[in-house]
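Read as amino acids, tokens; as here:

___
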Amino acid sequence: MVKKYKIGTRGSKLALTQTNFVAEKIKILMPEANIEICVIKTSGDIMQDVSLLTIGGQGVFVKELEEALLSKKIDLAVHSMKDVPGETPEDLMFAAILPREDVRDVLVARDNIKMEFMPRGAKIGTGSQRRGAQIKALLPDVNIVPLRGNIDTRLKKIETENLTGVILAAAGMKRMGLAEKITQFLPVETMLPAVGQGALGLQIRKSDVDLAKACAGLNDATTATEVTAERSFLRALGGGCRLPIAALGKLDGQMLTLEGMLAAPNGSTVIREKISGTTNDAEEMGKKLAEIILEKGGKRLLDLIC
């Protein structure tokens, strides 16, 4: 009997590109399967005229997909892991984390102006508090302009809103074939990425054992370990907090390094620390790093804002 699987996705070009990529991978592992792609509108896609913080912050691109999984309208959801909140429904699981793309953020700027040469008062577009805080910490004299929309929309706003430049994820630009438009790759030393940035996660119901077994063949152990540590850090800080949070795990052999950041939204305070451990320590490392950052001023930030 031919098994039919419905894969849920957001409707943006990037989301559909990523989901079609996943569907092709699943077809290779399960050639007998009939795959249907279902576009689901999320709160984040519908309400593009308000900030993400106003409509709920992290999770606004995920909630409706998870609801569709729980109600069995779809069988699998493809997520950009940077959009997934720290806590997910008990009855769901990530059957696979795919190999990571470039984790860095990038600058696309008018006249190809590099970040270090930004003039005073330059207008930099981003909808991310994490990016905004780190830019302000680096360049206090620039203006951060709130930005929403898909990649094409944000690129067009350089002209329509007279922006000096916009900050985007390298992964999305590369997956959409837009790498030639990038002015500058921002090093992680100055722009620590979002938790899970560059990684795709395949979320299913825990009860779907056969699908879990099939998806396991797509799991990348290195990326999964790195993302596990990053997401543990996010949860330990309180993933729903409306403060800029960033983290990056890096696995080299059996040695895992985890760097994390908590900041004030205006970049006036940035607390950034790094720890090392082994592959087996990923979950505990996230908790430990969060404790260190809280002790070094993070708790005061959380008490003031969250």
Observations:
- Residues 1-98+196-219 form a domain with the D-Maltodextrin-Binding Protein; domain 2 fold (CATH 3.40.190.10).
- The two ends are 52 Å apart (CA to CA).
- Residues 112 and 156 are 15 Å apart (CA to CA).
